[in-house]
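[[Per-residue structure]]
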Amino acid sequence: MDIDIFKDILVPVIGGLGIFMLGLDFMANGIQALSVNRMRAFLAKAAGTPIKGVLAGTLITGVIQSSTAMSVMVVGLVNAGVIALRPAISVIMGANIGTTLGNGLIALPLGPLGLILAGVFSLVYCFAKSEKVKNIALACMGFALIFYGLNLMTGGLRPLRNLPEVMALLQTLTADSYVNLLKCVFIAAGVTAMIHSSSATIGIVMGLGAAGILDWTTAVAFSLGADLGTTITSWMASLNLSKNAKRTAYAHISFNIIGVCITIPLFFVSMQVLEWAMQFFGGDPAIPVIVDGKETFPLVPVAVGLYSTFFNIFNTLLLFPFIGVFERVLSRVGHTDADDAEDFSTPRFLDRKLAGDFAKAIPAVQQETARHLQAGAMFLDIARSSKKAPPDPGEHYLATDILSRDIRAYTAELMKEDLPYDQLDLIASLIEEADFTAALTESMHQVARRVRREKFSGPAQTIVDVALSKLDVSLREILPTYGISNPQMPAGHVNLPEVEELRARTLALGPNAGAAERGTILALLGSIERAEILIHRIDAERKSVNRQSVLARASARKEARPQSMGDTGLSPVPAE
């Protein structure tokens, strides 16, 4: 039988592959448009412990059907400081399990129905008015196109069996020895790295296996390589991000590499186990089925999907106990002395166990807010290029912003309906103080950025130094332990000048400073003026409520309550 290579092979294979990948993209886009923000928020909230991280990673990846999108999301959340390195490692483990759910779906024999289902959902997408309905239709249309594309590829690849040259080449890719197994794994890893989709690689492999081009053990070996190649995307996403984000990507890479290295020596034993397990899923994948007079191997995709699922579950169960080891080793990657500096993105005093004890929770909030204030004061060290200053103003501000959100969230949780008015008033005062502190930190960040970005001439630098010293002194109003020595007074002055005087000096610089320098100093003085207003506001807020008195009464109520219950055997009277 003559084979038209263009019509019988290239058209269905390239067209089927394109439709398959387009279906993956449509399905991922539709589902992510519906739920990615909720999933991101859920992940940030749920991934508190390694076990929860694995479950969250499995669930979310199973829903959005993209381990690539999931790993990039995790890297981004770690970069933002929302998730720590330890739970992020567990989320990556869960993502590897979650993506295999999609591989199992791809293996379903729904190819002939794919085109008609894609047509139906395409019409729904075109005529739907609601954005939600459009996204649902887009996801379903993508799901249907996956099966149709896979069906096209299988049909287009089948004629290759009649081409001796192609079969001779593919026989060199038979996983019949450990050397050939490694060859298959590395080829699949390279293909996956290029197309950034393990699902697409596995789809191609399923098509080759179903068409009888690859035997079923070789197809399974290619799926093993796809799990290895998919790590490249998370690594690329982390290139310009924080060290912890890079470490998360390295965790993904090392996790999959270790899993593959452990599985390869067990591969041929696992094939015997898989062959036995396939008895419960339809029979021997090596036995062909005649469809329309042509041989096909419909159980090969099932075997590939089954192996991929069990590989990732086995890998997770094997390496989960070593998450702490992963964290310790990865924490040393790219480690510098700056990493030993305090991490202000993580609360030190906000213990969830104290949240139910008002008398203990309030001092914890006060300590954390004072710590936030100290972090903000460090922007002056950054402005002065001090050796003890954080090296990156942007990263330091990001850490303080995360801490600020944690303080506000923790404080708001203390606001119970049955609390007395004086305690509610104190909580409200602390929330306002935390908000003013966050605004002050932002102004201090602007001060540091403006000073660091501009190179000042001698006269201009003198004004900048005086302005920074003025802010130093103002900070001590709310931060008595601020550890910077008394500023040197400019010659001929007893007190530091006001902002208005510094502004006038700036305008009078004339030829002694360029326009850019003067503009920067004026903007700097504006930030300092806002900072001083906020400092006075924080001080006034602290004095607006007699905090010690409220805490003393709260402690007295707590001590009196058990005694009252012991005397009468009745429940205590609600607080007034």
Q: What stands out?
A: Strands lie at 289-291, 294-296.
